[in-house]
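Q: Predict the assembly, please.
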Amino acid sequence: MLQFWADWGDLIWTGTVQTLTMTGIALVISTLIGLPLGTLLVLTRPNGRLSNRYVYGALSSVINVVRSIPFIILLFFILPFTRFIMGTTIGVQGVLLPLIVFTAPYIARLMESALLEVDRGVVEAYEAMGISTRKIIWYVLIREARSSIVLGLTIATIGLIGATAMAGLVGAGGLGDIAYQYGHLRFEPEVMYVTIFVLILLVQSIQSFGNRLAARLKKA
Amino acid sequence: MIALKHIKKTFTVNKHTVTALDDVSLTIHKGEIFGIIGRSGAGKSTLIRMINLLERPTSGQVEIEGQDVTKLGKKELSKLRHRIGMIFQHYNLLKTATVEENVAIPLRLEGLDKGTIQKRVDKYLEIVGLSEHRKHYPEQLSGGQKQRVAIARALAHEPDILLSDEATSALDPETTESILDLLLEINRELGLTIFLITHEMEVIERICDRVAVIDGGKIVEEGDVLDVFADPLHATTQKFLKTNLDVPDEVVKELSTHGTLVHLSFIGSQTEQAVLAQLTKKFGLLPNIIGGGIKKLKRGLVGNLLIHLDGDVDQTDQAVRYLEASGVKVKEVTNHATVLGRLG
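A: Predicted assembly structure:
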């Protein structure tokens, strides 16, 4: 046991940090893109407050198209674009853009469904009180949906951890890369088991944290 | 105070045009409680939303204190809406906010300062009797309490007008009564003009000064509650008022085969006179009472009686004339309580 940690401890620790870094950065940026997009979907949908079938139709189709592409294919498919934006296609920097392109539309959908759960009557009540749409979005829609938003983001985070496992293919490291490089290619099954164990631990704690936070935000 | 002029509203549903409101004109006076009654789908929800322009009329004007509000810009409309409170059937409170936050948040969004907000929250929670529940969340409250929070929220803007969209329809009878009492109190003590829509006659009975009956997007009857209750002219109104007094159709049918079935209504003091006894004394008729009751309205009493007169045509004619002369409204009743016209 001790021997194992002496041999592999550093590597697994580095991998964990890499996975968390990629997940964290990609999550923050994807949320910054996905939440407004989700809001826009809700506002522009038929019967929405700013109903516009062209905006809604275009946005909805783009999201569907991007979401149709599996991450491993997306990673290579947008290589030229990644190089253009990030200046490189390898390492953590090279994988961030594909991760965001993959996750932002997913978060947009999750946010859309979270916001749709908000009772339209409350929105109407605030409209009747002469509150502007901008304030209603923030103080009513997002506030009332916050518990579902947190649950949605929890799901997205777990999805992101899965996606980062493929980041090894462009040399970005992370736990998935370790499991593949060492566990599979070099046939070190213990390394594979431990990586999987760490991943399970990560996913479990993120889900429990998300559930608890959502329950607290729900109040009542 | 509020004048709706020739309001028409059409919706397009699956390429079909549906008329929700058809040439509706109404005037609501300052300080009164005006009620609209109608079945679901009659257009009353659309109508109440015309006043704060949650729905815009396809044509026609909405005037509030002489100003056509359909022409207001965004900012003025927002200001106008601060002056018009609204309460709803399903309360529409923030589930994630406490009772006091539910009252305070809209005031904060309106841009009022902290001190004013605190004062108003205290004042209006006190008025609706929820000061002790200020830290509770809506889910911990009963339906009636939730509606009280919604009323406090509406009042906290210190509006001139309160719109009530079926505010008691989801409540049990006892709670309904207490909410109606609260609305009456608000109307009396704060001088608020209240415009309400409902499908419950009881609401109109207890608190309204004037009523309009809406059916198929049209106002079919309008007037003082007392007058409308005493002499309902339109079939829809009669249905709401149950002018057949819930006597089964079979009985009405059976009794109509011989003699005449008449519906009598009395206003106020006439309810105390023994006019029926006079029928026997004067015309030798023996009126058979089928059903009846007295309703207490906001502004007085209305009595209703359904009687059967089994006599020849002349006798009956004279009796009806006598009743009318004593100020009783008389209507002949046939099947389904439809009134064919006045006798005599």
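Residues 19 and 174 of chain A are 5 Å apart (CA to CA). The radius of gyration of chain A is 20 Å.
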